[in-house]
Amino acid sequence: MESNRKRTSDWWRTSTVYQVYPKSFKDTTGRGTGDIRGLIEKLDYIKNLGIDIVWLQPVYVSPQNDNGYDVADYYNIDPAFGTMEDFDELVHQLKKRDMYLMIDIVVNHSSTEHRWFKEARSSRDNPYRDYYIWRDPAEDGGPPNNWQSKFGGSAWQYDEGTGQYFLTLFDKTQADLNWENEKVREEVVKLLTFWAEKGVDGFRLDVINLISKDQDFPDDDGTVPPGDGRRFYTDGPRVHEYVKELNEKVFTPFNLVTVGEMSSTTLEHCIRYSNPQEKEFSMTFNFHHLKVDYLNGQKWELKPYDFEELKSVLSEWQTGMQKGGGWNALFWNNHDQPHALTRFTDDGEYREESAKMLATTLHGLQGTPYVYQGEEIGMPDPKWNDISEYRDIETLNMYKILIENGKTPEEAAHIVSVRSRDNSRLPMLWDDSDQAGFTTGEPWIKIDERYLVINAKAQTEDPDSIYHHYRKLIELRKKLPILIHGQYIRLDDKHPHVYAYARVTSEEMLIVVSNFSREEALFNFPQEISARLHHARSTELLISNMEDNLVLSPSVRIQPFGSYMWLIQDDKE
Fold this sequence. Notes:
The structure is a single chain. A hairpin with a 3-residue loop joins strand 19 and strand 20 (508-515). Among the domains are: 109-176, Alpha-Beta Complex (Oligo-1,6-glucosidase, domain 2), CATH 3.90.400.10; 486-570, Immunoglobulin-like (Sandwich), CATH 2.60.40.1180. It is α/β, with parallel strands linked by helices. The strands form seven sheets. It has an eight-stranded parallel beta sheet with strand order 13-12-11-5-2-1-17-16. It has helices at residues 36-41, 43-49, 84-96, 115-120, 182-197, 239-251, 267-274, 307-324, 340-344, 351-363, 393-404, 409-419, 456-461, 466-479, 482-485, 527-534; strands at residues 17-20, 53-56, 60-61, 73-77, 100-105, 109-111, 134-135, 156-159, 164-167, 174-176, 202-205, 257-261, 283-285, 294-295, 298-302, 329-330, 368-372, 487-490, 498-504, 508-515, 521-524, 536-544, 555-558, 563-570.
């Protein structure tokens, strides 16, 4: 059934999305893992935040080697999360609250437990063989080329039964689908249509820009870093053709909101993916701003984050996407990233100020903001005590690889503590009761010990909390067209501590100034902005994380991790 709510073609531009990692959201059974009923139980909490769209991560049948991103059955709910009746009830309850549901679609690869793959590996003559990517061994009997898995090691797995290798860009149990095969594309359209007819309002498509591979499958000669083969399958030769096909057959007919997760992508491609005239996606995720602390571009090599690079990347994508007519998915956090609160600011003494500052900085930009569960209450990365506390397959693989490559166990443990995806996968902290109100059983992964201080119950009851700061920002996006349409202009000239920008129309200007440091910072506006301030008809401080009612002037002094958003109405004469 299609939603009977009236929606314009770009209804999602004024919306905010709340990302739910179901395994860690709320458990209603005592099994120690979250479930669909737990999400239903907390819908009023999400609605009260002002959220329009709930993004539910994979709840399909899965062996859970990669936390549900290894799908074994695209049409059924994994019993660990509940039943299809539970899912239907979730759709119903969201519609009752005038909210929308976006679900994850994982079609670059499937689990090797999927029926298609079991058929495919049964013999070379099986009709499903061509659903996946198979190649003969190299002359030495090894993998067909030197491509590397995103999770470490070769991207190829040898199948003894049929004497060929199959491609796995991620975990060895995640076999890449062959999108060159028209039948595969028909299967994807079929499964998307199934969920759209169930009443979902949108899809987030996992690593969707990797679906088209260079059919020569050449070795990577290393001339283009990082030399792991990604340049032969990232934004590949037929990817836009494939996405347009999905849009024509599913996205447009059902008026869906879609976001493509883009791995190692480019601005130029994301403009094409998200410009409405191209008829592909509503918006795109890119991750370049979350690589500013990668030494030599390597995720598992640490360095202090480069503040100037962070500002430059955000600004480049703002101005570039505006100029090209694209649309950004705005985010600091997700299930694959350590918390930005720990990564870029101070999650101790200045935790509340930092969390509010990051929120204000992001929500003033052009795009659709995403809030990852727990971000709205200032959940930081946990303190890791031992490698046995981790559950993420990528983390455990890389810990071994780091030691094999010469790191001491202590060095490897420190690196994974900073980079692990498990940082953001700890259970949601609901209250100060046992197990933070997440479960009555033994949680699947540890609970952050700070739940007595950091929890949703305390945040919702405090009008000055991080939670209520998010509420105000989300409400502003619905009220102020300048947040949707205003031109982005960066205002700080490589200031060592301050990120400042404006959103501008012919009649008004919105200014955001944020201090990313533990030091007080003096910021002087550019002369042309100062002149416009001088002739302004009115100036309103919309939101701040400081108690002072700072007056906007050509020169402002910002407290540590302070952040301000002003709206300036121009004199009409």
